[in-house]
Amino acid sequence: MKKLYSALMTAFNEDDTINESGIREMVRYNIDHNHIDGLYVGGSTGESFMLSTEERKQAYKIAYDETAGKADLIAQVGSVNLTEAKELAKYAVELGYKTISAVPPFYYHFTFDQIKNYYDQILEGLDVQLIIYSIPALSGVTLSLTEFAKLFENPKIIGVKYTNNDFLLLQRLRSAFPDKKIYFGTDEMLISALPLGIDGAIGSTFNLNAARAKAEIAAYEAGDMKKVFELQDVSNKFILALIDNDIYPSLKLVFEEMGVHAGYSKAPMSKPTAQMRAGAKKIYEQYIK
Ligand SMILES: CC(=O)N[C@H](C=O)[C@@H](O)[C@H](O)[C@H](O)CO
Ligand SMILES: CC(=O)C(=O)O
User: Membrane-crossing residues (predicted)?
Assistant: First the structure.
């Protein structure tokens, strides 16, 4: 069975401090209503690269505590500061996370040897498995098939969260590494990734759209491609409307419409304007209600 994971958001107060109850409400919604297989904590959707080390730890702890074993958890620990990434990995493992994930080191155009060393150092001495977080459009780091092969030589590296629309590379990865886990990360292209044998998907929009995504996966497994297309079509109208309305704050605004107090996004992300609020209400009414 293919797994569906929501990328957990971090709720903030208006003053950009962490809103603990908001995170707890979103975790509960994912477990109780979405019946989600797991949560990806501290990724892009968690706005993690804008958080302090302490805040990132707080988010892992709250998510771990609220989940209470009812879903799989993955802690994204990647950072351009390797000292921080190592500290976060150690912390997550001590909390009880069985799987971590890390974006490659970014910004400085590191060499592949430096990237490999970064993963080896994060994992050194830890009893944990790791999923590479590949998201070239945001990180600026593109890994080739050969480079994935070298990283996958480390038995603790069990797979990749693949947020990339290079479907040729995705097919070659699947073919070359049948035993590694591949979780697809572009929610609007799920339809194209399903036939390539992905193990599941991890995404921001599943926080609100899990039922439709699960129905799409079920339709795919039943061989009903017409239904797969129809479901992806509605999902994409929803996702593109969110993107047009500023996606991260808008996911939270739609949650608010549903009575889940998801709070704000952190600056430099935007606080909602009246227009964004009206847009989110419309998205809720059209696609979620
Ligand atoms: C950058 C980002 O947030 N990527 C997410 C996962 O990797 C996706 O779930 C997207 O948010 C989603 O596909 C909308 O573009
Ligand atoms: C999957 C995704 O959205 C994330 O990195 O949070």
Answer: none
